[in-house]
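Dear colleague,

Following up on yesterday's call, I've attached the two folding results inline so they're easy to grep. Please treat them as preliminary; we haven't cross-checked anything against experimental data yet. The first protein's sequence and structure tokens come first.
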Amino acid sequence: TNPVRFKVAMRAKRLGLPLDRLDVMAETKVERICEILSEQKTSMVILDSIQTLYTEAIPAASGSTSQIKESASILTRFAKHTGISLLIVGHVTKEKELAGPKVLEHMVDCVLHFEGQSDLQYRMLRVVKNRFGAVNELSVFDMTDQGLKEVINPAMIFLDRYGAAVAGSVVMVSRDGVRPFLVEVQALVSETKTAPRQLILGLEYNRLTLLLTIMKEQAKVDILKHDVYVNIVGGLKITETASDLAVLLACVSSLKDQPLPHDMAVFGEVGLSGEIRSVPNAQERIKEAQKNGFKTIVVPKVNQPKQPIGSMKVIAVEYLYQVLQAVFEQNGEELRQVG
């Protein structure tokens, strides 16, 4: 028994797939693959992987630039001629870029990146190039013992909150591709008798130091003399600056030991002069928070919706000190004494 076929058959059986509709072929010669496929009634073919295929038209080793380019060219012409859908698997580099010549990405109709970490149960399918549709689309799947299952509401998968509201926690409306996500930002601010330190997981370290300095100079809230620890729950890596406001509110909440409302969400970029700058796709973020039961949302004034969003309370602010006043219900003099 062919070990490749046996392994695929065992996995298909475990996942409950119909074995009578699944064929496996152990072949690396492109001409032979096209010849066999043209004789069968096949709707979809998975080629794993393009780096192992070769064509006799090129006198080079498998995986070389010329072999990958010519093999992919033959396969794409075959797919367009026969109408068979080809899913070509390619290796990736350490930088998570598609290995091989860049022309390979231009030859195919769509490039999908299947991402995930071994310690997380979720997998993401990201569209980075689509000839017939939009890019930056994202699908989220749950890795189960029965295979991958689509996550119906991906906006909530990284929101893991328990019980009553606690100090140092706030929900941020982030965005990955075309999908908004609700993510919990946690902060712990502690007094120290030694040199203060800042530690942040899921965000850029230098960004945290910059934000704390802005808050000290523009809102007169000095947290730099404390130890500050910030964490993005769920192991996410947030790169957008729309997380600025959530990080600062979580830090002040921990410093004052005052919990923020459990049903409040936040997003906004903080500028060097303390202004709250607009973020892209604000309306979609607001609607996503409202759809998931949040009653209050803090947004930049530029992103304030023109029409009411149901019964949701929208707090639109221009400057950082206004945010602290609105959220913590303090007057300006008391705010200057914080920290």
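Below is the second protein, in the same order (sequence, then structure):
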Amino acid sequence: MVTIGSTGAVLSRLVIVLVCTGIVASFHGSSGNTTTAPFLMDEEDGFLTVPQLIRKYGYLVEEHEVRTEDGYLLMMYRIPARAGSSKHPVFMWHSLFSSCSDWVLIGRNHGLAYLLADRNYDVWMGNARGTRYSRKHERYSVSSAKFWDFTFHEIGYYDLPASIDYILEQTKARRVHFVGFSQGAMTSFIAMSERPGFTDKLIEIQALSPAVYMYRSLSVFVNILARSLDQIANALIATQQYEFVPYFEKQYFFFQWLCPAPKQTICRILIYDVVGANPNQLDTKVLRIFLGHFPAGASVKQVQHYSQIIKDGVFRQYDYKDPEVNLRRYGSYFVPRYNLSRATVPVRTYFGYNDNVVNYLNVLQLEQEIPYSKSSYPVPDKRFSHVDFILANNVKEVLYDEVVRNVEKAERAAM
């Protein structure tokens, strides 16, 4: 029998299953694929940790613990450059519900972290607070409400700057390359908006499907969840559960049970609705292994913040829904917007036309509002979806090769 492990895990996964079954009737895409992934992967990769994966595929890895100003202890993994490299470090920041497994899961010769390491970059991969690898605090227990009292704002305001400051201190470099996917890209704009001087530490931002504006989502699941999130949050908090879709030890086997091969019907229905359907690029084995790592955890409050920016269409801080509380927090009854005019670092954006999470029109809107949009790259695969940014069979050829070329250009300019 597969056990999920906690009341919070049961409730949050039950939400997924119930909403998933609610959209089955309207789903008409393929539930499988006919191509084989080109990746070097084994079944055991679904339950190995990130450092175990990196070592397995022949790379050195270091583990570093980063302390934030507000006391969180974040785990960061480093694939060091070979001796004598003079290149700037690369910092990589993952998506919502995920971890730095985003960058290594599809293995050597394809994972973006490996492609950069193969070009002798010093690669650092961060893990935001509350995720599988960053569940420690100097004062608060991970089971306490205080530990989970954060949204993506704190990730951008505390976690990202602390991680980059740590890299600069360890390497003695003055600046880093930044690569972020979805929430990872979005939080860099929070840091630039809220942290004077932060922009001086970045060479260039590679923003893969940046989740700044999300109000044009075509996903039935995302829109239902956004409308019902307050009620779901209240149900979770009533049982003293403050984490949304937490990682648990038997996760790989749970999803094998929920979504048995070869069709994986329930999981594919949900994934296709949320991210966009591109079945020929999502291999059955790859999805199985991915679900051993994802979801990796997030706070209930963090997901509530997402529901607000989806419903309101405004990139701003968390709305406490009480003018007096907002006044105490922000000095105003009105919730402050993030100031994108302060994002003065060169930004290269990448988007997919079939991305249901971050609609391509949202990315184009972001490009119009930042001072230095250096390039805009529509992935040439017209079916490219949100999950394809890390799992598609063709992701190296249609996306990562372009990202690496742009990092190399920025590196030459920064020398």
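For the second protein, one point worth flagging: The mean pLDDT is 90.

Best wishes,
A.L.
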